[in-house]
């Protein structure tokens, strides 16, 4: 029996199908979850994919945070269930206070879409064990509200505790403080990042590389070996 990984769809989600495919490419079972679901269907992990949930009204992720599905997601994440938030999913995680900080409009005020080089800063989370600390990868990036911000106390805490999971290389695309592209919670089961690893799991599409596949093989190995 393989791991069951839930992929949540909110109104306005764009990348749920791509994420489901990435889960299947890694060898796990993708379980669709609707935003009104109050039952997580016995999944072993959850991915909150990218898009513009609820049209990004109020703030990106601010309304999705109150969707019925988020109640069990928050509860289970606090109990240790692995959760990955990609782009809009990262925004939902900060709005849910599962991860600290906030996401603001890019400092140049434009939507950006490009392949983005990242450095893996923490290879010990539930979603990054198939990488090595210091490894450089390239995955697509596409956002307009991708600027990660937090006060100096929180930034210093993230650095000191090794909770910066990914950092931008070769230019900061959105003005994120300290070049932060992704972070993790203290337990390492919740990870959020702005770039899109689900678009880099097959050589035929995306970057033409499979640098993003490690997110999904990492969690599969963790769940199967648990």
UniProtKB/TrEMBL annotation:
First-listed, main subcellular location of the protein, grouped into a coarse class: cytoplasm
GO CC field: cytoplasm
CDD domains associated with the record: GATase1_FGAR_AT
UniProt-listed Enzyme Commission number(s): 6.3.5.3, 3.5.1.2
Pfam families for the chain: GATase_5
Annotated transmembrane regions: none
Function, as annotated: Part of the phosphoribosylformylglycinamidine synthase complex involved in the purines biosynthetic pathway. Catalyzes the ATP-dependent conversion of formylglycinamide ribonucleotide (FGAR) and glutamine to yield formylglycinamidine ribonucleotide (FGAM) and glutamate. The FGAM synthase complex is composed of three subunits. PurQ produces an ammonia molecule by converting glutamine to glutamate. PurL transfers the ammonia molecule to FGAR to form FGAM in an ATP-dependent manner.
HAMAP family tied to this protein: PurQ
Designated name of the protein: Phosphoribosylformylglycinamidine synthase subunit PurQ
Organism taxonomic ancestry: Bacteria, Bacillati, Actinomycetota, Actinomycetes, Kitasatosporales
